[in-house]
Structure formats: structure tokens, C-alpha cells
Amino acid sequence: MKTLILVITMLLSVMALADDARIEWDQLSPEQQKLLARQQEHWAVLTPDRQQALARGAERWSEMTPEQRGVAAERFKRWRNLSPEQRELLRERYHRFRSLPPEEQARIRLNFQRFKQMDPERRRQLIQRWHSMTPEQREHIRERRRARHGR
Fold first, then answer.
1. Are 108 and 96 in contact (CB under 8 A)?
2. How far apart are CA 112 and CA 115, in angstroms?
3. Is 0.85 surpassed by the pTM of this model?
4. Does the N-terminal or the C-terminal CB of the chain have fewer CB atoms within 10 Å?
5. From CA 93, how far away is CA 70, in angstroms rounded?
6. Can you tell me the distance from the alpha carbon of 107 to that of 64, in angstroms, rounded to the nearest whole number?
7. Residues 6 or more apart whose Cβ sits within 8 Å of residue 5
8. Is there a domain that residue 97 lies in?
9. Is the C-alpha dihedral spanning 109, 110, 111, 112 positive or negative?
10. CA 119 from chain center: how many Å?
11. 59 occurs within a structural domain
């Protein structure tokens, strides 16, 4: 009986913590409410994590310049047009990237910046070359790069 009471007490404590993490609609700023108006109808049934993520996103959006908003809107449009499989693949790659050491992340970012700054024709050639390789050839290149960078 003591164990049952302990378990119930723990569950109630966890539920209380979850309720503390909830954001009531009227706790949002007027700007956040305006941006999230389409969510208002079902706001109360969203998980606390989802509420917090949406509130943070609305806050970030309100702090962006018009140019940054344009870039973000275009990225979101591209994201919505991806298949569920493509989205999952991108999520996996993102999590894999975030699990890398900071130095490795910095190296990848630098290489990507170099790629973006290349002449468009050179970029097209590299992309075409990569896509024409077999999976084995691609893995061989990855292994050579890992060996070169001590991983």
C-alpha cells in the first residue's frame, strides 16, 4: 500500500511539473498571439513542449528583420514540400551533425561556406560528379576524408 501511495504521489508531482511548463494562451505576448492565432483553438491540448517551441518560434520570428523572415519563410516552404521520408532523413542528419565535436561541426560549416562561394558552374560539376558515383565510391571518399581529419 505504501508503494502505491508513493507511486501516485510521484505521478502527481510529475503532472504538476508538466502543468508548470504549460503556457496559457493569455501568457503569450500580443505579438506571439497574433503570430500563433491559427493555434489558439487547440492551444490548450498541445503538449507543454510543443507550446514552448511555438512560443520560442514566434519570439524569434518577431525579432527577425524582413530579409531574415523572407529566408525563413522560403525554408519553411521547402520543408513543407518534402516527403515525410525526406524530412526524417534531414532530422537524422541534423542529429548526427549536432552529435559531432564542435571542431568537426566548424570544419563542415567552413567547407559548406566554401562550396557556396564557388562559381555556380564548378558547384554544378561537383554535384553532378557526386551523383554519378556509386555508393561504394562515395563511401571511399568519406573514409579518405575521415582518415585525413583523424576521425
1. no
2. 5
3. no
4. N
5. 25
6. 27
7. none
8. no
9. positive
10. 29
11. no
